[in-house]
Amino acid sequence: MIKLTTNSLVLTKLQQAFPSPANSASRALTKYLNALEGLLLITLQRGLSPHQKKLGLYPISLHLLANKGGRIGHQKIRLHKWLKDNQLELVQTVEQGSKFSGEYSTVKLTSLVSLDDRMTLDSSVVAQIQSDRELDCYLTGKAADSLAVFNHLYPELVPCENSDAEAGFDFVPIDIESLKSFIHWLSDTAEFGNKDKRQHTLNQAKLVYAVASINAAMYPQRIKSSPFGRTYYMGVSVQNVHKELRRAMLGNSWEYDIRSSVVAWKMGFAKELLLNVNDLSDVRASFPATTLYLEDKADFMSTVRYFTFSENTSLTRDFQTTLIKQALTAISFGAKSMGKGWTDRTGSWHNPALVDILKNQSEREKFLTDPTVKAFINEQHALDDFIFAVVKKNLADVLTQSFLKTASGRVSKSKVLAYLYQHAETKAMDFICSVAAVHGHIPIARVHDAVFFRSRLGPDLKQEIELKLQAATFNKHWHLNSKLLKRYTPLSIDAKQEELLHRDRIDAEQRRALDYYSTCTN
Question: How far apart are CA 227 and CA 403, in angstroms?
Fold first, then answer.
């Protein structure tokens, strides 16, 4: 819960200006504070940069604050404006938002208001907690605090009245005990990212715990549909949290994702491309690098990793492989192989995706000159060009969409490809879920090209889904990977303490026995 407390001067001045009706000033100020608390809570969900944390800065929408902050008096003056006009502002604008920098303005709290952030977990406090009840109380706080968080985030919902038909939301079942164990682990012994990353993940876990604890272990995710075809969620969700937090949230479950989905989707056009140029050769022979990537990704990755990082011993093999995977995924989505950045209209500098991924210039050049990577890039470019040409010929109306154009008004090939792929991805995942549902497997969560079930589908059903998906889409390259997610083992601090006390008692009895026999022998 984010709790704001104002200097008494604010309410005094407001009461003097608006003495009637009685308590109108108090009610108006409470409404304004509630609006500001909600915006700050949402901001903390997104996370603050180290610079923002250091200077106490918060990116919020002043437009929303003014609208939600309410009005006062017979003339219905916005309280936000009245506070500013009377030098009683609670937030000071550091940087005004604009259509170029985004809708959010950067603000800081003034000396007239103080913030009590009850949503931020202190790992040192968690590590010192000595009982289960104490841990539960620290994580959830007072029921009123969790309810306030819920009402801030979901004003249109009522706790414990979840409905699959509730418009605009998807509900995810939360393994409360697994999540609590994850929080304790992350606060105590975990080697998990840097300090800021760990704290941000803890705060996200705290928020999910607070909401689910008063909502029948169900976590609402507010749907935010994208014109590109994907479903996103506003705020903290299974999509945007670290995979370990996702595992803790879902508990024991099975994840099924489409193997190399964007590359598999593109290869569905390979045969048509060859026929279009009267090339009767086999797809595998014409696209050897992409075929290897799809059929033996481990060999592909290890080969590229070796030639890219052969002299680098400072990075682990797993991290090197992660970088290679990110770089190839970026190429699959149309990333340029150029090494120079550019400045946008606002003056902000941008690096190409590959520069941000492979920061070492020498290693980036080795990656780009590797024969396997060069072949992969050429094959991806050929598929990209063909798919874009098909769109221009058969789906010209798609190209009129404004969100598929650059700032200069030119149609963006990469955006068009992303649009087509994401729609295809969504349809494929819908198909997978529908076939699974016929066999009694209902998804508990989805993350773009991955879906989570409570129990394993089994090899026969998995193969059936793959074959039906391939037949329905005329693409034999769709395949599913499966992965078991194990919950974080529920812990009991009380049981651990009792075990330690029991061991102490056993040790004490052994010492007394030794003393007794020592006395007898003497």
Answer: 8
Contacts of 297 (CB under 8 A, 6+ apart): 259, 260
268-309 residue pLDDT tens: 999 999 998 888 788 999 999 999 999 999 999 999 999 999
Q: Is the dihedral of CA 75, 66, 36, 57 positive or negative?
A: negative
Give the pair of three-digit tokens for residue 169. 């939301």
Bridge partners, 223 (sequence order): 233
N-to-C CA span, the chain: 67
* CB burial of residue 110 (10 Å; 0-12, 13-18, 19+): middle
Bond before 21 cis per omega within 30 degrees: yes
For residues 433 and 439, the answer to whether their CB atoms sit within 8 Å is no
DSSP string, 335-356: -------EE-TTS-EE--HHHH
**Torsion angle of alpha carbons 508, 514, 519, 522, nearest 10°?**
-160
- Tell the burial category of 285 from Cβ atoms under 10 Å away from its Cβ (0-12, 13-18, 19+): exposed
Q: Which residues pair with 319 in a beta bridge?
A: none
Euclidean distance between CA atoms 447 and 429, whole angstroms = 10
Tell me which residue of 116, 143, 111 sits closest to 40, measured CA to CA.
Answer: 116
CA angle 97/98/103 to nearest 5° reads: 65
For residue 40, CA distances in Å to 31, 33, 43, 237, 499 come to 14, 10, 5, 18, 43
Q: Which two tokens stand for residue 72?
A: 């006062």
Cα–Cα distance between 245 and 203 in angstroms, integer?
11
337, 377 contact by CB (below 8 A): yes
Closest CA to 390 of 428, 410, 420, 427: 420
Task: Give the tokens for residue 519.
Answer: 């006395």
Q: What is the DSSP letter of 72?
A: E
Categorize the per-residue pLDDT at 312 as very low, low, confident or very high, splitting at 50, 70 and 90.
confident
Quote the pLDDT of residue 341.
Answer: 59
pLDDT in tens, 320-352: 999 999 999 999 988 877 656 555 555 555 678
Rounded to whole angstroms, the Cα distance separating 370 from 310 reads 12
- Give CA–CA dist 165/179, Å, rounded: 26
Q: What is the pLDDT of residue 343?
A: 56
The total number of residues written for the chain in this structure: 522
Q: Which two tokens stand for residue 201?
A: 């993940």
